[in-house]
Amino acid sequence: MRVFFNRRRKLLAVLLLLITAGGIFAFNENDKYFQIAKNLDIFAAFYRELNTYYVDDLPPEKVIHKGIEAILEETDPFTDFVTEENLDDLKFMATGKYGGVGASINKNGDWTTITDVYAGSPMDKAGVKPGDIIVSMDGKPLKSVAQDEISRMLKGAPGTSLDIIFRHPVTGAETPRKIVREEINVKAVNYSGMLRDIGYIRMTQFTENSGAMVRNAFLQLKQGNPNMKGVILDLRGNPGGLLDEAVVVAGIFVDKGKLIVSTKGKVKNWDRNYETTEAPADMHIPLAVLTNHSSASASEIVAGAVQDLDRGVVIGQRSYGKGLVQTTRQLPYNTKLKVTTAKYYTPSGRCIQAIDYSHRNDDGSVDYVPDSLRKSFKTQGGRAVKDGGGIEPDVKVAPSYLSQVAITLMRKQYIFDFATSYYYNHPKVAPAAEFTLSDEDFNEFERYLDNKDFSYKTRSEDALETFKSTAKKEKYYDAVAKDLEALEQKMKHDKKQDLLKNKEEIRRLLEEEITNRYYSQQGRITRSLAWDKDVNEAINILHDNTKYKKLLSTSNSQ
User: Which residue among 121, 192, 295, 297 is the active-site one?
Assistant: First the structure.
């Protein structure tokens, strides 16, 4: 009987513990929702009283939006409130489509200039060229009008028209043109072609049907070049987009039914595994994926899957490190919330999110995940890979940086303007892959710069200025003043000498801009590939089967 009562006491104790725990859990949940309701009530009362009694009128929309922005500061930068007027931007991110004229613009002094015209676009059909200056639009003079405002005016519903007056950049003649807006579809694959016996595909975004575009580009290269030795998928500068399209792209090169990515978040019913659903186009052709620090999100899903499944090599620089998934939620009055709902995980189980937004410092700032806390995972073949810092390439290539003189020449549009002048003075040039700027042409560019201001400070001069300022504050300057002046004189740059020192770099920029005039974006990319370090490294590796296989072996681990 005593045993029975002891068991009964234990059972009652367990039940009481479970009831208590359940009550605490329920209280915590109820308390959370009570706090939400309470503070919303306080906020509504606060704003009502403020609006009623504050001495000046407060614009409701502006004030409430500031409140929303303050709330969003507690989240990651990818969670956002989308107003009705910005819905087109959200649509463009998903579809790559917008209503407009098919041209890029840039402010050059008081005027806005056409910098690129998309092939087959309304601007192209109307005969508009890069370098043309927009004088007026629908009778409104556009001198000194902000670039953002002109960009907004150029966009609009397909079928609507604009009456634009353009000024020729060389003759100064003004020409009126009627431009009828169309639906512009920015291609996710903006270039594909053969580099010797290696296929090359450049993908700029993951929008609707972009996976099918990559597959079609690959199949065309393969069918037209049966002896193709390998393929390069260039995801550099690709900010990502639709997760489903990343799965489709990975599925071009890996077997059907393979796990590509999984998502896990607060709402467990939304957790999902994403596997390839189509037969691959080619499971065996040597593959290189190019990444850099601007390769993010869906780009990292593809690169991570290729790496984790040992399907190819990743070349370039470490990717951005965005392992977060966003979902859009409908809000009243045709607004939306774009909210991070999950983290994604590559096939090996790693999340490559580089910044920890869930743990903020006391001042509200966030930090990168330190290398000491990054965990190791194994690829399908046993190679060690790490989480928490983007996709580390299997082959690292040092990034290229432009010199200060080149940056200044581009920022002040002297390279752009010279290319425009060159175009009108040379009716024909060699094909993009063969075009070179002669020494005489470069000398002409130097003469063109004679009366131009392209003064600048080098990074070394900036660092010295900072040092001098600090030395003065800390009262050390007088003791080192003569040494600093001597160093300043030694470091003083000569613009002419800087041009000659960086001649090859500037020549390449000129060649890219000039080929863009004759052969549009395709010409620019074709010319730039000749000196692309990442691409050339990929070609060398794809040609070296022994090295390629070694990179995919367990001896090559992070």
Answer: 297
d(CA 248, CA 238): 16
Q: Please pick, among 121, 234, 299, 322, the residue that the annotation labels catalytic.
A: 322
Among the listed residues 80, 132, 308, 394, the single catalytic one is 308
- State how far the Cα of 239 lies from the Cα of 207, in Å rounded to an integer: 11
Amino acid at 326: Q
Q: Which of 83-92, 124-133, 216-225 has the lowest mean pLDDT?
A: 83-92
The yes-or-no answer on residue 308 being catalytic is yes
Q: Name which of 254, 232, 307 is nearest 540 in CA terms.
A: 232
Helix-strand-coil percent breakdown of the chain, rounded to 5?
45, 20, 35
Q: What is the Cα–Cα distance from 530 to 515, expressed in whole angstroms?
A: 13
CA 515 – CA 509 distance, rounded (Å): 10
Q: Which range among 83-92, 179-188, 519-528 shows the weakest confidence by mean pLDDT? A: 83-92
List the end-to-end C-alpha distance of the chain, in Å, as a whole number.
Answer: 65
With CA atoms as reference, report the closest residue to 432 among 532, 507, 510, 515: 515
**Vertex 437, ends 432 and 440: CA angle to 5°?**
155
Please count the other Cβ atoms lying within 10 Å of the Cβ belonging to residue 245.
26
Closest CA to 306 of 283, 334, 274, 278: 283
Contact 518, 119 (CB under 8 A): no
pTM of the model: 0.87
H, E, C per residue of 347-384: CCCCCCCCEECCCCCCCCCCEECCHHHCCEEECCCCCE
DSSP per position, 486-502: HHHHHH---HHHHHHHT
Phi first, then psi, for residue 402 (nearest 5°) are -75, 150
Closest by CA to 188, choosing from 101, 103, 298, is 298
Identify whether the C-beta of residue 184 lies closer than 8 Å to the C-beta of residue 200: no
Provide, rounded to the nearest whole percent, the portion of the chain with pLDDT above 90.
77
| pLDDT 10s digits, 149-185 | 999 999 999 999 999 999 999 999 999 999 999 999 9
Residue 25 pLDDT more than 70? no
More confident residue, 14 or 83: 83
Q: How many residues are there in the chain?
A: 558
Location of structure tokens 């993908």: 203
